[in-house]
Design goal:
Blueprint lengths: L7 H10 L3 H14 L9 H9 L7 H13 L26 H17 L11 H13 L14 H21 L5 H17 L6 H21 L3 H17 L3 H17 L3 H14 L3 H17 L3 H17 L13 H17 L7 H11 L5 H17 L3 H15 L5 H14 L5 H16 L7
Helix pairs in contact: 2-3, 2-4, 5-8, 5-10, 6-10, 6-12, 7-9, 8-9, 9-10, 9-11, 10-11, 11-12, 11-13, 12-13, 13-14, 13-15, 14-15, 15-16, 16-17, 17-18, 17-19, 18-20, 19-20
């Protein structure tokens, strides 16, 4: 039955093989014989009809996927080829390693995000599928197809870099809630332009900026409570980093995905992602970031020895220095690592394994924080107040909490809200007038930005 609109996914993948439609038909017939389907014998005209939108009956979609998988050198499913019952499968974390097909997938995600409420229907990738997807994306090699030149020029790439810088700064200072739709809309425009053509001389800049934008879209989606949507933007960011020849950029994005798993209470999945990241990381700063995050996860699991090992490894990297850093990882410094040590100390203390007081690490992080990181500074302040409560000092806790809550009111972030929930839990044993005031304000702020689980 003809679909009438054409199957651009199938057209792109057949084009990527470099084979004629007649040769595709011949190989399908041979694959059919090999699998015991002797009645399947398409010709070039039939292949053209499939490209035009006709939906072949089983087992042809599976046979076609098998043939194309062998030629392009990566596993494909009927859904990748636009041959599932609902067309191309968009509800997956993986992107096809083909420039235009990947951009089409991204465009589909942004369209669903902007014009349909998919918050509750997108599936969050967890467990083995998540870990395997990250490993596949970091190890993949993209296959460009379109050689057109109309998608970008030097001026539009510069504009893309500048607007991404603006949104990155806005997210760090105010939280991403206010800007999320604009960031996603910008990503949709980038997807459209990539499909129109990527000039070879601008490819690295285009995909580097796109990786930054997609990573940011994932982060602000996560910070807005759209967790499955965040995964999909991050997956495209990893793909774009690979196109730009920046594998460590992709590794950094995987650490964001691991952060999300910690936040959602899945530390084992976080460790799986960090294991993939550790195997691919090359730059010392990325190895330090992975070690710091890994130590934090082990602390959440109560493994004091492993937490100390990995946090100590990050200390050594930091002591050696990193030199000039690309903007996308410049946030990872001694202050960020001190924050990781703070939450690690908090988690270990909660599990009966007290270390250096968490408040000491939070104070160190606050002292070291550079200007422009208002959201994470608020999280440090809230964490400090909660630590003082946990350490039996309600007066200092209430004083720290008042300042933290003043700052938290100016940031739109569910990550901050999760820390407020941690603060409320820490304040529970105390019932002074100052603590009651803190409790009331924290509840009001947390209720305005509901979150899933403390992190």
């Amino acid at each position: 039955m003809a679909g009438g609109t054409g199957n651009s996914h199938l057209a792109l993948w057949i084009g990527a093989t470099g084979l004629s439609q007649g040769e595709i038909a011949r190989r399908i017939a041979a694959e059919a014989v090999r699998q015991g389907h002797r009645q399947i014998a398409p010709d070039a005209t039939r292949v053209r009809r499939w490209i035009d939108g006709e939906r072949p009956r089983p087992p042809v979609p599976v046979l076609l996927a098998a043939v194309l998988s062998k030629v392009v050198g990566q596993p494909l499913t009927p859904g990748d080829l636009g041959l599932s019952p609902a067309g191309a499968v968009l509800d997956t974390i993986q992107v096809p390693l083909l420039t235009e097909a990947a951009a089409q997938t991204l465009a589909g995600w942004t369209q669903m995000d902007l014009f349909m409420d998919r918050r509750e229907t997108l599936r969050l990738a967890i467990g083995a599928p998540l870990i395997l997807a990250a490993e596949r994306m970091l190890g993949g090699i993209a296959r460009p197809l379109n050689r057109a030149r109309q998608g970008f020029d030097a001026d539009t790439v510069t504009a893309l870099e500048q607007v991404t810088d603006f949104f990155t700064h806005a997210d760090a200072t105010k939280g991403g809630g206010l800007y999320r739709s604009a960031i996603v809309a910008q990503l949709a425009e980038v997807a459209r332009r990539i499909q129109a053509g990527v000039p070879a001389g601008l490819k690295t800049r285009i995909f580097a900026a796109t990786a930054d934008l997609a990573a940011l879209a994932g982060w602000v989606s996560h910070d807005s409570g759209r967790y499955a949507t965040a995964q999909r933007y991050w997956s495209y960011g990893i793909y774009a980093a690979g196109e730009a020849g920046q594998r460590d950029r992709g590794v950094e994005i995987v650490t964001r995905m691991s952060h999300q798993m910690i936040y959602l209470g899945r530390p084992e999945d976080a460790l799986g992602l960090l294991g993939v990241a550790a195997a691919k990381a090359e730059q010392p700063v990325i190895r330090a970031l992975v070690a710091s995050q890994t130590g934090r996860v082990h602390a959440a699991l109560g493994d004091e020895r492993q937490a100390d090992t990995h946090l100590g490894a990050a200390d050594e990297f930091l002591a050696d220095g990193f030199g000039d850093l690309p903007d996308w990882v410049a946030y990872f410094d001694a202050a960020e690592h001190a924050g990781a040590r703070a939450v690690s100390a908090r988690d270990l203390a909660a599990l009966g394994r007290p270390h250096r007081p968490a408040s000491t690490h939070f104070l160190e992080a606050l002292k070291l924080r550079a200007p422009g990181f208002d959201r994470v500074r608020v999280m440090d302040r809230v964490g400090l107040a909660a630590a003082f409560f946990d350490e039996g000092d309600p007066e200092r806790a209430a004083e720290a909490a008042r300042r933290a809550l003043d700052d938290a009111a100016r940031v739109d972030s569910t990550l901050v809200a999760s820390r407020l929930n941690t603060l409320l839990e820490a304040a529970r044993p105390y019932h002074t007038s100052a603590t009651d005031e803190v409790r009331t304000r924290a509840k009001d702020l947390a209720a305005a930005r509901p979150t899933v689980v403390a992190a």
